[in-house]
Amino acid sequence: MKKNTSQNLSKRLVQYGALSAAVLGVADATGQVTYTDIEPDVVLAVGDTYNIDFTGTGAQNVEISNPDGLAGGNAALAFPSSGGAFVGFTAGGFEYPSLLIDGDAVGPSETFTTPGERGDLNYYGCAYSNSQWCDEVVDGLLGVRFTFDGNTHYGWVRMDTDVNGSNEMVVKGFAFEATPDTAIEAGDEGSPLGVADQAFNNFSYFTDANTLTLSAATAMDNVTIHNISGQQVSTSALTSNNERVDISALSTGVYLATVTIEGTRKTIKFVKR
Fold first, then answer.
1. Cβ(48)–Cβ(16) under 8 Å?
2. Rounded-to-integer distance, Cα 221 and Cα 100, Å
3. Around Cβ 271, how many Cβ atoms within 10 Å?
4. Which H or E run includes 172?
5. 68, 46 in Cβ contact below 8 A?
6. Strand, helix or coil at 103?
7. Beta-carbon neighbour count of residue 235 at 10 Å?
8. Alpha helix stretches (DSSP H) within the chain
9. What is the pTM of this model?
10. Which residue in 180, 179, 168, 217 sits closest to 197, CA to CA?
11. What is the pLDDT along the chain (273 residues), one digit of tens a residue?
12. Spatial separation of the C-alpha atoms in residues 95 and 97, rounded to whole Å
């Protein structure tokens, strides 16, 4: 299996768009885990949302929302794609996703919320006995069921809620089992030392007003850039381990660049000034 390397929690306020790049795993006897590490972690202030794309195809499988004006800015919601659902339960007319820990099962044998209905995380307090994500949660895991290419898949999202009592949320990473109808363990990232770790060894990047400079130990294949709305704005073929990509035509703002090396991918955030 392949994974990217995590960075420490970023406290910078940022709202990403719909795109998140998935790093494809390699099948073994137990299945095929596809893991995406968000680098840096996405911090959601009140009013921000983040879209989870498990498969890296531009689809929105889950929207994580930290809504403004709901419970005084002390709530969190998760919206599944059509037919999607969360490990959890229905109570009093509301859908409550369960707070999972590493190793919990996410699969056909679990109980799920009503398909297509939003899940209420309710981090604003523990007065509601059904709200398992209440108060501050660190490294909580959301179990997800979604449909891709007509097949049912299971996955998880790792996130924090009400960080340091600030009402902020943090989305850190996610994974899914690429083999249809196959359970995944919450927190399973695949092999701890995969091909992606080697391909992106010593990878670095920086930008100025006109150029995105990329450097890696191995020759890079291509880079695709998306804006925060998930729209592709450029793609460039690469041939060496040191590359300069022209970004002069891009408007000022935040972008996601996905670099491919030997079939593995890494997504970085940069700011065009």
1. no
2. 38
3. 10
4. strand 169-177
5. yes
6. coil
7. 12
8. 195-199
9. 0.64
10. 217
11. 333 323 222 222 233 333 333 333 322 333 588 888 887 899 999 899 999 999 888 788 999 998 887 776 677 888 998 789 999 999 888 899 999 999 999 999 999 999 999 999 876 667 777 888 887 889 999 999 999 989 999 999 999 988 788 888 999 999 999 889 999 999 998 755 455 557 787 889 999 889 999 999 889 999 999 886 667 899 999 999 999 999 999 998 888 888 988 877 787 888 888
12. 7
Tokens of 8: 């420490």
Type of residue found at 205: Y
Paired tokens of 202: 């010593």
Residue position matching structure tokens 């972008």: 255
Q: What's the full length of the chain, in residues?
A: 273
